[in-house]
Write a structure and sequence with these properties.
single chain; 382 residues; mainly beta; 3 domains; 16-stranded mixed sheet; nine-stranded parallel sheet; 3 helices; globular
Length: 382
């Protein structure tokens, strides 16, 4: 029998080869430390509470014995980044459109109205110098030598009227390896991706919620050089981009809800054999689209039985293999009548989209009920 660290409880059935390890919040590296000892077939149960992010996992299960990390079932499991609201902004005398305030760092990213924005996260772009900030449309620079933050908002406007937040942590969970299952986590408030998969194979992300991530150009979930990743029954909301998949083969998004992104909802950059089905996708910002498909990603793509909400964004679908930028689903279906015959555009009628009180269940009158490929409801099954 393997011995677990003192902070963990090891439960092994008589004669069983697989172990179940239970960990509680506390130490900053509680999850990473517990995961180091996992073997094929093992399960890591996370007790209810809030855990630190910036977690790197490199785990290898087998097809017959995957490694599972999931909520223990005793309440919400939160991976939450540190966020601080900044005040005391003063204009620079020689740069009146640049505002400064004291800050000791670290600074992973910055955003406006992070908690109560009507759309996805509105980021401030990172700059490399004070001169660059002064010329940017909307950005920030952390002056480490003088321990101060420098920002410029659109039009040089003062930051009054906005809640300016500093995100201290870069990402929630970064995963590599193979034959893994991540289930039941809530991840929020990170400058980069909530969940990132790099050189990962045969991974399932299920029943997870990612929000308020991606102030630096990234996504709620981001895949790179990966294959056979399934994302099912997940909610991605109030992020910069919902999902970005690059060099990712056979990515499957099934029964997901992507709601209110600042840029793209789903961005298939490259890879082949992707599936997008039974999902609700709403890109709420003006700088992206609900669905963006790059030319390499169109190979073998299966996308149907989805609800796209086509308000709040100038382009609903970018289909780059044919250079199509379609403002509505009707435009897309007219151009490619056989591509998505069972998809539609409508308000999904979610129970609540009020910031801080979201409920992504469907109202009884939702047009997404009984419209999935299997006759069930579209969107995340919670």
């Amino acid at each position: 029998m393997r011995l677990a660290p003192a902070a963990m409880l090891l439960l092994v059935g008589a004669g069983a080869m697989a172990a179940t390890v239970t960990v509680s919040p506390g130490a900053p590296d509680a999850i990473a430390a517990a995961a180091q000892g996992l073997h094929p077939g093992d399960t890591l149960l996370l007790k209810s509470g809030t855990y630190a992010g910036n977690i790197n996992l490199n785990l290898r299960g087998t097809a017959e014995k995957p490694i599972t990390i999931k909520a223990a079932g005793d309440g919400p499991v939160m991976l939450e980044g540190r966020v601080e609201t900044k005040a005391g902004w003063q204009p620079l005398p020689d740069q009146p459109e640049v505002y400064i305030t004291n800050d000791a760092g670290p600074v992973a990213g910055m955003g406006l109205d992070l908690q109560d924005a009507a759309q996805g996260v509105e980021p401030l772009e990172p700059c490399r110098s004070l001169a660059e900030v002064a010329k940017c449309y909307q950005g920030f620079w952390f002056d480490a030598a003088n321990q101060r933050l420098c920002i410029r908002l659109a039009g040089g406007a003062p930051p009054t009227g906005h809640t300016v937040s500093v995100l201290r942590d870069g990402y929630g969970l970064a995963i590599s390896g193979e034959n893994l299952r991540i289930e039941g986590l809530t991840i929020r408030r990170f400058a980069g991706q909530g969940i990132g998969l790099w050189q990962a194979r045969n991974v399932t992300i299920a029943h997870c919620t990612v929000s308020h991530c991606g102030t630096v150009w990234s996504a709620g979930m981001q895949l790179g050089q990966s294959a056979d990743v399934t994302i099912e029954d997940c909610v991605i909301t109030r992020v910069r981009n919902g999902l970005i998949a690059q060099d990712a083969d056979r990515t499957r998004l099934i029964h997901d809800t992507v709601f209110l992104t600042r840029a793209h909802g789903i961005y298939f950059v490259s890879g082949s054999g992707a599936v997008l089905q039974d999902s609700i996708v709403f890109a709420g910002g003006g700088s992206g689209s609900a669905l963006y498909v790059g030319p390499p990603a169109a190979t073998g793509l299966q996308a149907d039985y989805n609800c796209f909400l086509d308000t709040g964004t100038r382009i609903l679908i970018n289909w780059m293999p044919l250079g199509l930028s379609c403002p509505t689903l009707a435009d897309f279906q007219q151009a490619l009548p056989d591509a998505m015959p069972h998809s539609f555009s409508a308000d999904p009628l979610l129970v609540s989209t009020t910031p801080g009180r979201e409920d992504f269940h469907l109202q009884p009158a939702s047009p997404c009920r009984a419209k999935a490929a299997d006759g069930g409801d579209m969107g995340a099954r919670q």
